[in-house]
Backbone:
């Protein structure tokens, strides 16, 4: 009886030690994937913006930089996937670069598999849209910027470029796996936008506009229905 009791005690202590070491591990490292239970309860769509409120600062607040001009305009087209309004991006390039827009997210996003949006181009060489996703690797809920370089100093920036070379609207679906880490050695070089261990998850999205043919040319595009989806 005593031997059985001692065996049970040792087993219980082992279980407790096991739990403790797992907790310590969770606090000290950002996991590369979330648990199944978290993923199964998570929504399968997150609407970043469909501009239904008629502007770009009320429901979702976008900031802009560079020469890009934003305006939310009524959708005149009949495509069923369009909402009532879309965001128009226009601007004049300086050495290819026009500017960009961004939105703070602070979102549990590890279970989303694709980024979707609709884009209206003006034919060949309409321009490039480079989509940038920042995850919070140093767990302070902000994108840390190096003041000297203007680049992120502690968080990953994952990017994917879209050459808009078509006329009219098109639904664009980008697998998250097609986003590449643009700053090796900064952050942990792993796409892990989970709100665990103090991380704010997916911190921010930015969309950078550049020209495709004329380095000093103009750009005009419309975008709508920007969302993260689990497919
Ligand atoms: Ca950060
Ligand atoms: Ca990195
Ligand atoms: Ca990361």
Residues:
């Amino acid at each position: 009886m005593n031997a059985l009791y001692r065996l049970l005690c040792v087993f219980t202590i082992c279980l407790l030690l096991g739990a403790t070491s797992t907790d310590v591990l969770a606090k000290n490292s950002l996991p590369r994937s979330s648990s199944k239970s978290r993923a199964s309860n998570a929504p399968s769509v997150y609407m970043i913006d469909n501009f239904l409120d008629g502007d770009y600062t009320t429901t979702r607040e976008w900031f802009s930089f560079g020469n890009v001009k934003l305006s939310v305009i009524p959708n005149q087209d009949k495509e069923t996937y369009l909402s009532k309004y879309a965001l128009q991006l226009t601007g004049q390039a300086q050495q290819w670069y026009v500017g960009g827009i961004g939105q703070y997210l602070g979102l549990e996003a590890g279970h989303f598999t694709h980024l979707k949006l609709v884009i209206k181009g003006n034919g060949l060489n309409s321009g490039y849209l480079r989509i940038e996703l920042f995850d919070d690797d140093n767990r302070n809920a902000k994108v840390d910027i190096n003041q000297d370089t203007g680049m992120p100093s502690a968080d990953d920036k994952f990017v994917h470029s879209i050459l808009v070379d078509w006329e009219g609207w098109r639904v664009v679906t980008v697998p998250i796996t097609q986003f590449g880490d643009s700053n090796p050695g900064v952050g942990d070089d792993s796409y892990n936008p989970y709100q665990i261990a103090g991380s704010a998850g997916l911190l921010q999205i930015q969309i950078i506009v550049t020209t495709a043919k004329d380095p000093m040319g103009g750009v005009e595009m419309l975008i709508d229905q920007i969302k993260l989806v689990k497919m």
